[in-house]
Amino acid sequence: MLRFTKMHGLGNDFVVFDAVNQTVALTPDQLRQLADRHFGIGCDQILLVQAPIQPDAHFHYRIFNADGSEVSQCGNGARCFARFVREKGLCLEDEIRVDTRAGRLLLRHRPDGQITVDMGVPRFAPADIPLKAEQESVHYTAAAGSAIHRFGAVSMGNPHAVLPTDDVDTAPVDTVGPLLESHASFPERANIGFMQKIDAHHIRLRVYERGSGETLACGSGACAAAVVGIEQGLLQTPVRVDLPGGSLYIEWQGRGAPVLMSGPATTVFEGTLEL
Ligand SMILES: N[C@@H](CCC[C@H](N)C(=O)O)C(=O)O
User: Fold this and answer.
1) Pocket test residue of 65, 74, 101 for ligand 1, highest count of atoms within 8 A of CB
2) Is 58 left (phi over 0), alpha (psi -120 to 50) or beta?
3) 242 with 36: CB under 8 angstroms?
4) Does any ligand 1 atom lie closer than 6 A to the CB of residue 34?
5) Which residues are within 8 A (CB) of 69 and not within 5 positions of it... i.e. 6 or more apart?
6) Catalytic residue at 74?
7) Among 2, 7, 3, 1, which Cα is nearest to 268's?
8) Please, are residues 213 and 36 in contact by the beta-carbon 8 Å criterion?
9) Residue 100 beta carbon below 6 angstroms from any ligand 1 atom
10) Across all residues in the chain, what is the average pLDDT?
């Protein structure tokens, strides 16, 4: 029997396991079944809260997409992580140091109940994203379907492409999203964001997530869109990002600085699972 908690960050939903106090060893098949919305609990990602590997961290954080793939970053999940460890009494500190495969995240509980995550320093070199491109640029192109798509790209600890759109409501998220997610330009696939600029401090965004499909919100995707928009000279910090599930607030002071993401995290229910 495994105890789990169902949580969400703006509708990007998670099954969260305390892997400090119970052994959690799930195969990719079991992960896929858990995430299935008809035959399982249903979620976009599965999150594991583990004991730290580094002595100066509070926890280690593992993330699995709905398709069973393990990944290195999940921003909405990080806010849920902070709420989970507080609600479970695993860590009552206001600042929590969490290591992932992509590096360290700092999670901060704010007095207003929201959580701010230091998502680390974005990386733009094509090899770091990874993206097959001759040289770094603020605009890349890829042919998919019958069109050439123009995008910006960044690693937020996971790979993101950000495409401009005039109207996010009619953007081809469910057709171009999967084509670019597994495009040959992205050797590790990518999360594909469609960004509509409202003004220099405000965008609308939909994200087709690698390994999970379109979600109601993507935290790392919101950071990627803000950072790409700033790099392209379209946006200025801070940036409000309206996603289908609600709004996130992103701050970034430019190259070499970490990205700060603020938003809510919600617990939905608890359960036990027999495998
Ligand atoms: N929903 C997440 C991102 C989860 C991982 C992503 N699908 C990937 O494969 O990189 C977020 O809030 O950042």
Assistant:
1) 74
2) alpha
3) no
4) no
5) 28, 210, 211
6) yes
7) 7
8) no
9) no
10) 98
Give the ipTM of the model, two decimals please. Answer: 0.99
Cβ contacts of residue 242 below 8 Å, gap of 6+?
A: 198, 202, 203, 204, 205
Cα separation of 195 and 235, whole Å?
A: 11
User: pLDDT tens across 54-70, in order?
Assistant: 999 999 999 999 999 99
Residue 218: both structure tokens together: 């993507």
- Whole-model pTM: value is 0.98
**pLDDT value at residue 123:** 98
**Using one digit for the tens of pLDDT, what is the confidence trace for 201-260?**
999 999 999 999 999 999 999 999 999 999 999 999 999 999 999 999 999 999 999 999
Q: Which of 7, 191, 216 to mutate to test the pocket of ligand 1 (most atoms within 8 A of CB)?
A: 191
Expressed in angstroms and rounded, the spacing between residue 211 Cα and the centre of ligand 1 is 8
